[in-house]
Amino acid sequence: xxxxxxxxxxxxxxxxxxxxxxxxxxxxxxxxxxxxxxxxxxxxxxxxxxxxxxxxxxxxxxxxxxxxxxxxxxxxxxxxxxxxxxxxxxxxxxxxxxxxxxxxxxxxxxxxxxxxxxxxxxxxxxxxxxxxxxxxxxxxxxxxxxxxxxxxxxxxxxxxxxxxxxxxxxxxxxxxxxxxxxxxxxxxxxxxxxxxxxxxxxxxxxxxxxxxxxxxxxxxxxxxxxxxxxxxxxxxxxxxxxxxxxxxxxxxxxxxxxxxxxxxxxxxxxxxxxxxxxxxxxxxxxxxxxxxxxxxxxxxxxxxxxxxxxxxxxxxxxxxxxxxxxxxxxxxxxxxxxxxxxxxxxxxxxxxxxxxxxxxxxxxxxxxxxxxxxxxxxxxxxxxxxxxxxxxxxxxxxx
Length: 399
Prior knowledge:
mainly alpha; 0% strand
């Protein structure tokens, strides 16, 4: 076997030299189809790990791809027929080639020395092309091709951390990095890729105008992937940054309530109100919490404040109506029959009536909430016409 292997080695070397020679000829010819062939031939050689440190192979491969990019760019400049997507793909490919070759150059030689000969030249080429990686991301985003947008955006941002670009100090000089990171994060969100989104979160957050959106996307991904602890943390970050944002506050309260942590929800709501006592979102949450806890008198007080600020909010009328209605039902069940009791019960139903009727007017589709309440109210107040009408609706709903 040793003799066979030794016999095969010269053949492999000869084939390699032949492929390199042929590919070099193709590159010199600059014909598009031959450049593609040269690229394929060099990639085939690089699949053999023994060839990975062969400088000639890498340089021919890079030249073949670079010439394809230059020719494609010229065609677009001259408004000749050419696939724009292909230009971006070719540019991206050349970045990967030069970055990989740069990592090969960083490997110490037999004497333990690192000789980097091509970094300056290659980084100069790539730096001039780098705007087209950004443009490729923008182009893919417009096409809603989120997979490609993520790839281009990620590559654009990654340049800031690649040794080949160390002299350009992109982290300090490139103002487009946060935008590219945001595109990557948004594309990752669309692809349900939590890991990729988190990777670009910190950079994207440098654009403070997008902080709310970023926290929302990350939170939704964390919830989808079952990371509830980080989900709540993201909601709290979003809330602390913008307490009035409609996404964060209700979801934090819903989370605590769903977990049975009513006290935690109450504390969070009170803290929110302490920061803004007139916020309608916070007041509604407090109203609902008091209603659910059975503290109807306080619920009425808070809901009254809410209605003074949001007199067209259907849920506020519902809460106020139910605060009176629930008291009437509870009183009707617990007290012994008497004229005084009936008067007290009916007074509560009468107070509930205008609020439930307004809720019906503002939210006609939410029949399951107002039909049962109005049915009981009209029945107890002996409102024949109103009762018949609501009873007909009730029968259709099979309640």
